[in-house]
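hey can u check if this looks right to u? its 352 residues, i copy pasted from the old doc so theres a chance i mangled smth
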Amino acid sequence: MSFLDRLTLDLPLIQAPMAGVSTPLLAARVSEAGGLGSIGVGAVDAVAARAMIAEVRERTARAFNVNLFVHQPASADPVREAKWLAFLAPVFAEYGAAPPASLREIYRSFADDPEMLAMLLEVAPPVVSFHFGLPDADVIGALRARGIYTMATATSLAEARSIAAAGVDAVVAQGIEAGGHRGVFDPDAPDDALGTVALTRLLVREASLPVVAAGGIMDGAGIAAALNLGAVAAQLGTAFVACPESAASDAYRAALAGEGGYHTVLTSLISGRPARALATRFTALGEHLAGRRSPAYPIAYDAGKALHAAAAAKGEHGFGAHWAGQGAPLARAFPAAALVRLLGEELAASRQ
């Protein structure tokens, strides 16, 4: 059975589960239009995730994806964290605020969240995907035993081979062009920064799993190119940020349509893990690091969110996490269903 048949998709299209942007409404509208809608639950607990899944199911009977963060739990480093807060203190002061007295690990990894696992096994969403790594093999086996289709992000062949060995059903080949967090298993290891084209083709040839191409794909021609490389589908994230159903703020939408969209930056400043964002006041701080390192993910994100809140209270929105891929200037502000239909038409035209 093919990937599309297994998930009953009309189009080889997955809406990326960008946490903080993707909503149950957006996911449902994409699924209803024939793609695979996604929600990201890495930033919420099991209770909130259950509610999000229930809302998607209220809006569509079609397949959808639930994405989980499987990062290694952070090791606190008070000295490093204090130095980071001291570095950010002058920026906080610009907005009449002080940095937090201390930082905490604000997101729980799925690798250490039995409540999330129990909830997923109970409600059995059609698809579950993993980012930043993999849970234990018995967890993957338990999800699959419930009839859940599983996917995981890889940025390299080595990660894809680990995904295949763990028994996951499909691999998402995330090129360096992609918006949001890099899915690297180890953020401190060397990153070959493979582009979507090279990585997709490499995994199609070597990974022994269905491959979903992700990174920089914004229209039907891009989807067609991914399919020509041997991918079974394309995953688009930045393309859906401007949809009215997304949770992107007005400032985020304006930034996406502005000059920053032409100059995306891969940075660890905001969250502690490398992520591609629009060029903003926050990313510009990278010019002043002078060898400093942000705390580990997601501890650094606690500081980033506090800085954004302080600045936004004074009308400055340039410290938000405005994730976007290199295709940002190609974004179109259409309702999700209309965008999916247009992507399908463009795909059909590109394959004639």
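The mean pLDDT is 96.
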